[in-house]
Amino acid sequence: MVTARSPAAASPRMLGGRADARPARWRRQLGAKLALLPLTAVVIVVYLGCMLWTVRLSFSSSKLLPVGDWAGLQQYERLFANDRFLLSAINIGIFGVLFIGGCLVFGFLLAVFIDQRVRAEGVLRTVFLFPHAMSLVVTGLAWQWFLNPTLGLQKLVRDLGFAGFTFDWIVNQQMVIYTLVIAGIWQASGLVMAILLAGLRGVDEDLWKAARVDGIPAWRVYLSIALPLIGPMVVTATVLLAVQVVKLYDLVVAMTRGGPGIASEVPAKFVMDHLFERNNIGLATAAASMMLVTVVAILAPWIYARYVRETGRRT
Amino acid sequence: MPMFRLACLATAVLAAAPLTAKAEMRAEVLHWWTSGGESAAVKVFAEEFTEAGGTWVDSAIAGGQAARTAGINRIVGGNPPTAMQFNTGKQFDELVANGLLADLDAVASEGKWQDVLPPALTEAITRDGKVYAIPVNIHGINWLWYNKKLFDEHGIAEPTSWAEVAAAGEKLKAAGLIGLAQGGQPWQERSLFNAMLVGDGGTDLYYRIYRDGDQEAVRSDGFRKVADLFKQLQGLTDAGSPGRNWNDATALVLTGKAGMQVIGDWAKGEFTAAGQVAGQDYGCAIVGQGGYLMGGDVFVFPVVDGASSADETQATLAEVMFAPETQIAFNTIKGSVPSRLDVDVSGMDACAQKGAAALKDPARQVPTTDFLISPDLSGALDDVITQFWNNGGMTTDQFVEQFIGAMQAAG
């Protein structure tokens, strides 16, 4: 974004100065432009091209192999009559809100905790960040065993003598989506902690001293002074988490396989299942296109506020 | 620079080696048989092919789904393997329709495949009058495996109907055991449901629904009775069932924690590995009216160099795989029964013999849904069956309507 904008903004001024500046600059940038060409080509052909190809296929009747006919909105009609897809959409909404919110709150608390200059800080930091180093498949399997009522926590507590103890969320259709949230938060809040801790360490010491002189309690300083200051870090963390939400697939496959029944299905799994196992490229690409539309719908206002309106104000 | 020259020479020789080998019969075979027993079984093919003068290049990819995707991508991309595995059924329909597979007509007519294969299998490998695949085995999908010791202890005889299975399960459950060990994954729930549909509803009902797509058959009393029984069996499972793998469920049976399991004959490998003997430690039965649900594997031969029929390498490979001795050796290790009915199975175990005996009767040869419906419809029905199995609040009426809905949407 920055590189694309700055020459355009700078050139009129340069032109006013020296008439021969433009070709010289142009020649100087030629090398850089040539170097960027492969990247640009990859972005346009691979990313954009594949995106358009996917959308195109969603209007065809493709089954195992892609075909180029026109089937109108047939795939979309089937998609929106499909219980599993609708439930997937609700599930990803629940997961997204709780996962991002939970990670931010929990990660922030961990960062504040570490920020107290606790002893063995390095060890604790590693411990908290460690889950993130594991693949979601491992996370999913471990949590699956831990939550399985006949193998894990429930059995352990019952064996300890509390026969009435029940914790069977993972086999309960109403609660299973929350077990995914728990596993997700466990996995990702360490990353949020690392990002926010870096931010907290960047807060000016003088602010703390001033607050102490004024007798403001520490929690108040964190909430009203430090948190607004590290706003960009929070945004970074949120974006990273949001990406994880959209591509949520491996955790579900490893932990619940979308079950019991279809209770923990998510859109990415719907796409994968139909793309490969069920030989229905048309329906899969229709679902993928709906995911794309949703992401764009969420991102568009943000991009507008962040870039378009800002540049508008500047000129 | 003698070293350099030597290196050059060595490189040249190495580079030439594949070229000379190509003139011989070099077969790259793509399959997904990677577990211990499976790869031992596939080795039988490799050895026999080597004996016939070929060079076997093993291209194993773990997981059927991954292997099929990789294979299809290679075929479409113009770099096909010599032979590739599929499950018997409709999986390779579109490859045939797009002219990507070589036909085996010459080999099939010479080997008189039609006379030795069950008719359903012949149908499954034939498209527009031409043979496009070689069936290498038959897996029985609808077996009931039970722990003999537990059954004897509680005075339960081998069930002959699904109502008796339910009764046996209730009895075991009352004794504090798991009545039915079930892996709670959609394909296993489908497998159980279809076993009950064939056993209790009968083959006619099964064919009307899956082959003819008859929606009235789904509304029939026979179908509803199967649905009710299916729901009753759900009550016999334990809380840990959802998400469980099939082999973990088998382990429950062979360790005496659960009474029985309904799963294909690949489960036999688990019993054998645990040192148990068919007919002594565990029993096997085809419950109900006797339809034997046949699944299995085939190999297809992608078109090489534009020839629409199998070339010499492919033909030899097919002949080798279908030879009676290879069939016996392969299927003994694999746990399935030979796809050709004219071989002597007396050397195989009690359950395999039971299966082979069932296959002798044409009326009992029933193909699995993979032969009859598209993967798309199969998947849509999976979604409905797994909802019915897992959702306590779903009534039989809703199940019937959703089943029909899936048939309309994906049919």
Write up this protein.
The complex is a heterodimer of chains A (315) and B (411). Chain A is mainly alpha-helical and 315 residues long. Chain A contains 14 helices and no strands. Chain A has 2 domains: 56 residues; 241 residues, MetI-like (MetI-like fold). Chain A starts with a helix and ends with a helix. In chain B, helix 2 links the parallel strand 1 and strand 2. In chain B, helix 10 crosses helix 11. Chain B folds into 2 domains: 183 residues, Periplasmic binding protein-like II (D-Maltodextrin-Binding Protein, domain 2, 3-Layer(aba) Sandwich), CATH 3.40.190; 186 residues, Periplasmic binding protein-like II (D-Maltodextrin-Binding Protein, domain 2, 3-Layer(aba) Sandwich). The longest helix of chain B has 22 residues. In chain B, 53% of the residues lie in helices and 14% in strands. Chain B has 411 residues and is α/β, with parallel strands linked by helices. Classes of the chains: A mainly alpha (315), B alpha/beta (411). At the A-B interface, helix 13 of A face helix 3, helix 4, helix 20 and helix 21 of B.
Largest interface: A-B, 33 and 35 residues
Assembly type of the chains comes to heterodimer
Beta-strand percentage of chain A? under 5%
* Whole-number total of structural domains of chain A: 2
The spatial strand order of the largest sheet of chain B comes to 2-1-3-13-6
Topology:
The complex is a heterodimer of chains A (about 325) and B (about 400).
Chain A (H helix, E strand, L loop, with lengths): L1 H16 L3 H37 L16 H7 L2 H33 L5 H13 L2 H12 L5 H7 L16 H26 L3 H9 L4 H12 L1 H16 L3 H6 L11 H11 L3 H34 L1
Helix pairs in contact in A: 2-14, 3-14, 4-8, 4-11, 5-8, 6-8, 8-11, 13-14
Chain B lengths: L1 H22 L1 E7 L4 H16 L2 E7 L3 H13 L6 E5 L5 H5 L7 H6 L2 H4 L2 H7 E2 L2 E2 L1 E3 L3 E2 L2 E5 H6 L8 H13 L3 E3 L5 H16 L1 H8 L4 H5 L1 H14 L11 H9 L3 E6 L4 H6 L8 E5 L5 E4 L1 E4 L11 H11 L1 H11 L15 H11 L4 E3 L1 H4 L2 H16 L5 H15 L1
Parallel strand pairs in B: 1-2, 1-3, 9-10, 12-14
Antiparallel strand pairs in B: 3-13, 4-5, 6-13, 7-12, 8-10, 8-11
Helix pairs in contact in B: 2-17, 10-11, 10-13, 10-20, 20-21
